[in-house]
Amino acid sequence: MLVSHTEEFELIAEVESGTAFLEELRKMKLLPDVALIDMNMPGMNGVELNNFLHRRYPKIKVIVISVHTQDRLITQMIEAGVAAYLARNCDKKELVTAIQTVHKSGFYMNDAVLKVLRRASEFHNMVIKNINHIPIELTERETQVLLLICKEYTNVEIAADLHLSARTVEGHRNNLILKTGCRNTAGLVLFAVKYHIFEMEF
Rounded distance, CA 155 to CA 164, Å? Predict the structure, then answer.
């Protein structure tokens, strides 16, 4: 395991299949903050495991590691609630950065994933004539919070920037998730990109 010897993290379990992972979870008194899962695990694949974790253990942030890099799959997994999507051949430094960022901000997107989202946004722009029409109404404050979320600000950092309490920011974040129908912070970023609320820079 790439992070087993990293002082910043404690590896509490390493298993060979999705079903074995769920068995380990049931035994744990303290759940992991972040789970690294492979798309092609035996017994229960990454899609099935992610969906189960989202329903039963929504506080666990999921990072998918996969050899599959198709745009459609990456977009679908982000929409399904994963916090990060990494290529199997990513190096230790990026994996550590991804775990740190997901734990802090709720999501991590590298340049490859951001380019996928940009292509998805451009496709969305082609097939929907009225692309600028957002299907929901966001308040000015919700839009401000959403933009800062896209910049990887934490609740505390957003609160300081907007002169709000962290609890108020958390309320706005939860309202955004409810309004947009997204599953998590990464989904909010995808929503913001899709409807041109947030423009990505490379």
Answer: 10
The reported pTM is 0.73
Give 152-184 as a DSSP string: T--HHHHHHHHT--HHHHHHHHHHHHHHHT-SS
pLDDT in the model for residue 16: 87
Q: Where are the domains of the chain?
A: 18-114, 126-194
- The per-residue pLDDT for range 107-148, each reduced to its tens digit, is 998 988 888 887 876 665 544 444 446 778 899 999 999 999
Let me know if domain 18-114 sits in CATH 3.40.50.2300.
yes
Per-residue confidence (pLDDT) for residue 133, from 0 to 100: 60
The fold of 126-194 is Arc Repressor Mutant, subunit A (1.10.10)
CA distances from 191 to 67, 69, 134, 200 (A): 25, 20, 10, 12
The DSSP secondary-structure symbol of 139 reads: P
